[in-house]
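#data-curation
PF: Archiving a pair of folding outputs for the training set. Convention for this channel: one message per protein, sequence first, structure tokens after, nothing in between. First:
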Amino acid sequence: MTTILLRDLSSRVSCGVICYDGIGNYKLLGIDEDKVHLDSPVYDEGDGYYDVEQIKPYLRPLSSMTEEEIKTYNAFCSYNGIDDSCVIDYIDWLNSHHFDYRDLISKGLAIEAPEGMYETENS
């Protein structure tokens, strides 16, 4: 069985990505060794810590970009050319806008975010 990788989540911790744990939707707070920490109610077991295969992040498909985001996407590295810092900034931008640039939704490792789920964060 294929599971999402911790690296797919770790770069999204600071972006406020929301994850589904099989019961509810909770903000990703961090990763502690091999466990994912969600802002979920404290249960008798786990205290909001999950194995990575227990959760799925809500991500936006690239096809959901707004016109403004498309302009940013198309012009991202055009001013300075593509170099290492541009690529890092570009991936940070994709993460901060909750885009599924690793095709995790089609692999069943993430859930397509409902329209407007992250709207207030990126406005």
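PF: Second:
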Amino acid sequence: MGDHITTYSGIHMLPLAPRPEEIRIRDIAHALSLMVRANGHFPVFYSVGQHCIHCCEEAYERGYSERVQLACLLHDASEAYLADITRPVKQYLPQYRAIEKKLQDAVFQKYLGDLSEKETELWRELDNTLLYYEFQHFMKEKLMECRGELKSTPVFDTEPFQTTEKKYLDWFERLYKG
């Protein structure tokens, strides 16, 4: 095998040493549209791609900059190459978190350059806000204190992965200025 993965587009990608030319938005959109949120514990299929799109739409509705909207869309892109580990476990895996951060930073750098502290704070806030509403909707559980009212109206339904993939790419094309 080696130390690479083969992506949807056929790229041999090194997740531990990501290079900009190996990071492809089509691979990210495809993989995230097929990855399930909550480690598969929601009662229906709801993808990481849908979550990212909803974060992006919320940023749009709040009037945040296109950079923050794009950061929201891309904020889980490392999962396209690494998968994910639930938050309660991830906190005990500093090496994994370092690998994830390095890869996520490479994605942000490729498509956004350096993010300011404020931009990072905004996308993280929206990530947590959507997490709150997803758990409230799917699990009838208040996972944490409410992060504020949503201005957007996310639809937490199962949708075909092709639909999510297309929406993801459409948002990317609208926002990416590279």
